[in-house]
Amino acid sequence: MRRLRIALAGNANVGKSVLFNSLTGLQQHIGNWSGKTVEKAEGGLFFKGTEIDIIDLPGIYSLSAFSLEELISRDYIAKEKPDVVVNVVDASVLERNLYFTLQLIELGRPIVIAINMVDIARARGVEINVEKLAEALNVPVVPIIAIEGKGITTLMEKAMAASRQKGNAPSLPYGKNIENAIREISKDVEGQDFGYPPRWVALKLLEEDENITEMVGERNPKIIEKARKELQKIGKSCGQPGSVVVSSERYAMAERIARASMNIKKAGMPFSQKLDSFLLHRIFGYVFLAIVAASVFLSIFSFGDFASSHLLGFLSSLKAGMLPYSGEGPLQELLLDGVMEGIIAGISIALPYLVPFYIFLAILEDSGYLARMAFLMDGIMHRIGLHGKAFIPMILAYGCNVPACLSCRILETQKDRLLASFVVTLVPCAAVTVVIMGLVATYVGLEWALALYLLNLLVILVLGRIAFKALPGEPVGLIMEMPAYKMPMLKNVLMEAWKELRSFVFMAFPIIAVSTFLIKLAEVLGWLGPISDVISPITVGWLNLPTVVGIALIFGILRKELALIMLASLLGAEAFNTVLTPVQMMTFAIVMMFYVPCAATIAALKKEHGWKTALGISVFEIVFAIFLGGLAARLLGLFFV
Amino acid sequence: MQKRSPETEEYLEMLVRYARDGRQPKVKDLAKDLGISPASISEMLGKLSAKGYVRYEPYGEIRLTEKGEKVGRSVLRKHHLIERFLTLAGIRKERIHKEACILEHAISDDVEHGFRKAVRVLEKRGMQTKDIMRLVDLTKGEEAEILLLEGGGNVRRRLMDMGLTPGTKINVTRSSARMGPVEISVRSSTLAIGRGIAEKIFVKVRR
């Protein structure tokens, strides 16, 4: 039987994932593009006796080398050659969407255009003439309303028909200057197989695409030389840099086609704009933002706290129930207290917070408010070298660093993501708050606990700035589309949340289980004592803490809030002020606050940035925390005599 | 170049203006136009006569020599050029003449040549520099046309991909004077652009 491969491509915010979800249902597989940290969503469906694989390409605005997502998308289309590319287009923003469509056509695969959200466009006074558009582009065009499932059957029929066609519609011609240059360069490109259409390679050379220029230059520097000359010619005759001319002309084409295939009626001020005059207001906007952030925050934590304690109780009793049957011995202890305990921790501590978090995130994103949050916070976030969107991971991190790390993906460039992930791991999560409150606020004083939070903000500010300067790559400020407000649909929200949650579970749980096992193993083998002796020069010599505290610090790698319970049992006292001096308590809290993110966070870092970065950040933070702790131990001595 | 006092140049320029308008220069009129007492005018004319710029006998006719006319014409030409330049630079009309009277004595002939070329280019494009602004300086409701994107290749690429190619019409839908991004409407989409980037986007304001 024939098996068809269809790729979904399009701008962000066009409802591509909605279409993907309604096409594939739960038949989805979410992974990463091989060797890359970009998510790859695949799914399948049966349509009229044909098995169809759907690949949801990332939402992008162009096929340049701006981001990893763009590179992956263009390489997939050119090299993996899907049978059909379905280009999802937002009917209300036809012109900019067509700019991307024109680039897709240049990649030379059969294309079907799905004009989505025609109902919303109609409400805004925009009616699209499908026949005219299809004629101008020479590709099939299907109007759809993905969220209601309308037009999807026709879309799939057209896609299947397109897959039977040989070849694709020819690219639309540019102006004379550029066409001449393309012809000249194509001559030299044609003989060599670069894996992309020759005309496309020539165009990318004219656009001064870094990636393609490098690829061609390695094999044949003469072509680059030629392209440079052609660019100079274009620049001279058009009075603009050659690469600008290509984009300008492509947009001019998109504009012409969009105008010819649209009927625009005058409509009143769009609903989104009316709403924005309140939600983005200089004062009310921030008040509303604070209310939204606080209520999201509170509901996540109150639900998380509630579900967490119940799950923990339930699972622990389950484990206890297994005890009589398993018998006792070192192996049982390893499996039950090690692996089992780790999985229980994962389920009862991470999931109760993650589930509501992902649901809220999907609602915020689908409704369009997420972009408004970023807009409002942009000015403030710039002080640490990040832009508005990074506000979302930051606020999440106060709850749990893991989803915060994962949500750094909403930023565009690798530099922004890395910087945000780093900053996020420095934020004290709920577990660290337990330590600070239970130790410092209770026994030293609330003002000192608050001072620690201030210190934390200061450190984030300073380290964030340094990292911003030190990390390679140019800073890309905020360039963000403000999508129209939409009513989030429950089904889509749940599916998006489920997608994220599932990938988290597969990523983090094995690591949590293994690390609990290892620590348990060390305990069973009686290594904890010797290990704390080995690190005693640090704990005792530099940090001025009792030797046994080393064990609590090691346990903190797993679950930071457990460190306090460990500390109590190790020191043999619940009242910490009888065994630790105020300076020692503060030192311990500072080290806990900054040192290595917990195992699950390291796993999240690994997922997003690879092992090297995850280890780099962990090692840095251990060293930094110990350094700062020792410094604090000495300086704080001046306050507490 | 021979050193002349601004005063000398100002007299010669005024005499060229008289000649151009077909007026016979008289001490009384000159005193009024230059805002100086008739006695000082006579004294200055004596000095100019001694230097060979004018022919002048007390109570007689005042005439420019060839040398004087050349200097006067050059100063007047610079005056007109500077007036055009100041207009482009968006200086208010009532100040232009006075400012030009000061600047005209300060620029050398080759600087004049460079200015002339620049003024021609700007005038040909039909724009005044007061119309060329950074996106960040526009206020809500203003319409503009993208002129030029400064800055790194990646940012420029991204902006163009989002539709901000030179010549594109935009509309500022939200902007605050001090903080936060600028929101614009472009090609029927709405974009938020951070201040740092909005500082590097130059636009021509449509009025």
In a few lines, what is going on in this structure?
The complex is a heterodimer of chains A (641) and B (207). Chain A has 28 helices and 10 strands.
The low-confidence parts of chain A are none
The CATH topology of the largest domain in chain B corresponds to Arc Repressor Mutant, subunit A
**Which structural class is indicated by helix and strand composition of chain A?**
alpha/beta
Cα separation of the termini of chain A: 82 Å
CATH superfamily of the largest domain in chain B: Winged helix-like DNA-binding domain superfamily/Winged helix DNA-binding domain
Number of strands of chain A: 10
Number of domains of chain A: 3
Provide a count of the helices of chain A: 28
User: Looking across the biggest beta sheet of chain A, what order are the strands in?
Assistant: 2-3-4-1-5-6-8
Largest sheet of chain B: 6 strands, antiparallel
Which band does the percent of strand residues of chain A land in? 5-15%
**What order do the SSEs of chain B take from the amino end to the carboxyl end, as H and E?**
HHHEEHHHEEHEEEHE
Give the oligomeric state of the chains in this entry, treating copies of one chain as homo and distinct chains as hetero: heterodimer
The Rg value of chain A, from CA coordinates, equals 28 Å
